[in-house]
Amino acid sequence: MTSLTGAAHSGLIQNKIGAKLPVVERAEGVWLYDSEGKDYIDGCSGAVVANLGHSHPHIVDVIRKQSAKVTFVHRGAFASSSMYRLADRLSNATGMAGVWLVNSGSEAVEAAIQFALQYFVELGRPRPRFLSHRRSYHGNTLGALSLSGHARRAVLGELALDFNVLPDPYSGAPVDELLAQVRAELERTPGQVAGIVFEPLSGATLGCVPLPDGYLQGLRALADEFGTLLIADEVMTGLGRTGRMLACDHWGVRPDIAALGKGLGAGYTPIAAALVSGRVLDAIASGSGSIRGGHTYGGNPLSVAVADAVLELTLNLGLADTALVKGEWLSDALRQLAEKHPMIVDVRGCGLMWGVDLARPGGESAAAAPIGERLRQAALAHGLVIYPTTGGFNDACIIAPPLTITEDELQHLVDRLDAAL
Ligand code: PLP
């Protein structure tokens, strides 16, 4: 039988356990407890998901109460009161006009693609192409994976949808040169590009590398000049994680469509959303085509009630602002670790979304196991969960704890990382 170890390790084939993973029995706040009684600090909020920490009593209460009321209705026939509340709250919090609820970040990106296609169909000038970036990750469904410059060739090869991949804006190349390449691509296919898709910070691929200053403003100007939509993938960065409700706000740029995911359900329920600007909403709502991209569980009352409570708490507790303050403390601490441990060659990020680039110890063979994975394992042994990424020039690790982490817990996190290094 074919070995399924790799797939099992990444949790894909759950009935063929090839690698023994610790079994989490319980989680509270930033803490995870395994079946052997060992505690871990969740330094990565699950997968940059658990913005409120685990088992938040208010959210647990909302789940209990909503489960006892109603958990599912056919969205074509009924709404739920929290659906309207969530849509309004999301719209007010982000400044985007329309909200379309789905179940995962990948579905939100797919919805963004479909809305962009539909927008140009409604204008009577269909455009079939999209541009995205070479080192990017946008999800695992066919459209989202085809946009993912990092994974599309490795996973889909020639089967990837014909989307064009732009050069790497996270590489340190001069912004003017990067924008000139985007312009050249837009000029090469006039009237063809429906959307330019980007991550404000490269998360899963590079480990929290922000776009260079000026690039996003330049993309906005080019999108306007060529009549193309700007599509922000804020699945990892949205909802306070970087210190703003949308990370694009750091550069004062408004996207035409934004995909949200992870932090919306905050680890309590699968839910995600595609948000559209007034102009896109007007076109697709007044047009002949019905809105596509519906999914059976999309916007179900349980997920919606949870997301509404998550968003209400995020806003009431001012978690975006505290992410900035705590992030500053964390980045200082990571820079101090970098001085002590030459293995850390770069520290970058925003809010509570940080990454460290790692160098192999001098003289080590290139055949040795990746340094990011080795640091992940060492951290796990010291009771800290962090995630490696391998899509960049160096190995990197992501450090993105829950936004509710306390100062003491941040200190524990840094101490455990120090020990692991
Ligand atoms: N977009 C970005 C930027 C992501 O980081 C991810 C997941 O890591 C996705 C999309 C896909 O989200 P999901 O795994 O919920 O489908």
Automatic annotation (TrEMBL):
Keyword set, alphabetical order: Aminotransferase, Pyridoxal phosphate, Transferase
The cofactors required by this protein are: pyridoxal 5'-phosphate
Protein name as catalogued = Adenosylmethionine-8-amino-7-oxononanoate aminotransferase
Provide an example Pfam family for this protein.
Answer: Aminotran_3
Which family does the UniProt entry place this protein in?
Answer: Belongs to the class-III pyridoxal-phosphate-dependent aminotransferase family.
GO terms (molecular function) for this protein are: pyridoxal phosphate binding; transaminase activity
